Amino acid sequence: MKSSLIIAVSVLSAFTAAAPDFCSPGFKPKADSDYKLDLSKLNRPEGFLVSAETSTPPTTTKTEITVNLCGPLSRPENANQDNCKDGTYVCRRIINVKEGNERVTEVQEIAGEIDGSVLNPSFTAPENEQDLSKNGVQYAITLNGGKVLDKTQSTKIVLECDTNGDKNANPPAGPEIKSYENGVLNLYWKTPFACASTEQSPGTPPSDGGNNGGSSGGGGGGMSGVGIFFLVVGLLIAAYFIGGAFYNYKQYNARGLDLIPHRDFWLDLPYLIKDLFSHLMESINSRRRAGDGYVSV
């Protein structure tokens, strides 16, 4: 029992380690953008099965493709020569059907890490597309490592964003077979999981392209230069009154209004402003009267 548990944990760890980078949640299709993909939802050890049939009288030839984009396919308990080997990501089987009886005629490991081969996965995002969340955006994935009769095999998958797809479908929609030529299997996969998204963390303001003008270090959440000026002035005034009150209290044991620094000035300030305003108004009125009494010679 203990040995079985150790083996199971080892196998699970191997599967996790083998997952390509593009299958990690939060994977960025473009390193210089904020868009993220989550293709981990397409990680199914049992794989996605897609098949096509061809009439070959007196039999029917069925081609079965089983794909797991993000890890090796699991093998049935009673696996034999009719099943692909351990480490296979893409398995192709040719089955001959006659009068309801099936006979597997070919088993091909098209991609994976089989008998020491290397998957060497690649992911390509569209270069000229800026909005990676819109319907129809396509990505290209290539999985290698397969070999049939000493001939190298690979799988090329076109992932297309389907904004109308159901992310809650169980299982999710699988791929379609497009072609198989010269050792290259081409699949087309329309899925909502190929639609990238931008998720901002809570409280993060939207980017304004760095045109904040007088903002300093972005620490004010986009505060303008005028806002920073008034903030500094307010802090200086507060420091003046608090510091002055503390000084008067410690130096003179002042209480009440006596705590106000330069109290007499602040008490006289309204009258000074009133006198200044009256003086300005008197000067203006005097000039008007002088203008009205001017007589040309």
Automatic annotation (TrEMBL):
Residues 21-197 form the MRH domain. Residues 196-217 are annotated as: Disordered. It is found in: Cytoplasmic vesicle membrane; Golgi apparatus membrane; Mitochondrion membrane; Preautophagosomal structure membrane. The chain crosses the membrane at residues 226-247. Keywords: Autophagy, Cytoplasmic vesicle, Disulfide bond, Golgi apparatus, Membrane, Mitochondrion, Protein transport, Signal, Transmembrane, Transmembrane helix, Transport. GO terms for biological process: autophagy; protein transport. The keyword Transport applies. It is a single-pass type I membrane protein; Single-pass membrane protein. GO terms for cellular component: cytoplasmic vesicle membrane; Golgi membrane; mitochondrial membrane; phagophore assembly site membrane. Its main location: membrane. Belongs to the ATG27 family. This is Autophagy-related protein 27.
